[in-house]
Amino acid sequence: MEYRLLGHTGVRVSPLCFGTMSFGGDADEETSATLYQRCRDAGINFFDCANSYSDGRAEEILGRLIAGSRDQLVITSKVFATTGPDSLARGASRRNIMAEIDKSLKRLGTDHLDIYFIHHFDEATPLPETMRALDDLVRAGKILYPAASNFAAWQVAKALGLSAQSGWAPFAVIQPMYNLVKRTAEVEILPMAQSEGLGVITYSPLGGGLLTGKYATSQRPEQGRLVDNKAYQKRYEADWIHPTAARFNDFARQRGYNPPALAVAWVASHPAVSAPIIGARNLAQLNDSLAALDLTMTPELRAEISALSPTPPTAHDR
Question: What does pLDDT average to over the chain?
């Protein structure tokens, strides 16, 4: 496997990152262990988690799985979402960050996180408070690199400016959504990341399963995020999205490609992307995404696939 530099960190990571959102939920502990081992056998050294995944159980399961090989891995987690009955346990305030990092470290069985994401921009907390708290965690050795998930480009840029002005550890990695039918990141987020040398790990490369082909037929599945999850239904409700996914699946199958592998490989081929985050509830789903590692995405093939969906307008909209 050819490992990639994660932005300007100097850290080399696998070209795919495995997201553990299913651990402790859709995937029980035994299934989670099978998925984890399959990733390790494939050469993946990069695992993404969050304190809110399965109410902390995902961190606990991942912690047990990485015991004995922690130094060989790059591990992330996140803070923001409510994690318990405490109404104060949410957001990116100093209070919540300082409380949640210790809980995450305990669940993961480690003394530090390689990457620690603010899961969402917190409009209720001044950004300098958040950045100073993250810098304190870096100085304490509890995290190595601060990071931002679901931030707009201007929010990341503002944070980078504050850090540069104050001598604080800056955001080193960002985590935006990016797939063939959600390309807004191409407008400002990905160019900003390239300009600033940020690592980029993108989530939802399969569009919640939409780009796998299972929703493109008349015989729709009875279970799945686009069936069970109203947030995913709303995210992909625009009239053009499902027909675009159907065209993509026709394109893939006509050329002999596995649609999930092709969708992941398309995301990975963007020059700003360090590693797409793949997820799975079972081994069959994981194997479909891992097949992207064996797929060659030429500039011509990427252009053909890109032409299947609308190119987002430039930031100045001219």
Answer: 94
Tell me the β-bridge partners of 174.
148, 200
Alpha carbon distance 99, 84 (integer Å): 12
**What is the per-residue pLDDT across 116-162, written as a single tens digit (0 to 9) for each?**
999 999 999 999 999 999 999 999 999 999 999 999 999 999 999 99
CA 217 to chain centroid, in Å, comes to 28
Are the beta carbons of 267 and 276 closer than 8 angstroms?
yes
Task: Give the largest Cα separation in the chain, rounded.
Answer: 57
Show the CA angle centred on residue 151, arms to residues 54 and 142, nearest 5°. Answer: 60
Q: What is the CATH number of domain 4-175?
A: 3.20.20.100
Please give the model's pTM, rounded to 2 decimal places.
Answer: 0.95
- Pick the catalytic residue from 3, 36, 53, 236: 53
- The C-alpha atoms of residue 90 and residue 80 are separated, in whole angstroms, by 5
- What beta strand segments (E) does the chain contain? 4-5, 12-13, 17-19, 46-48, 74-79, 113-118, 143-149, 173-175, 199-202, 275-278
Residue 166 neighbours by CB distance under 10 Å:
12
116 catalytic? Reply is no
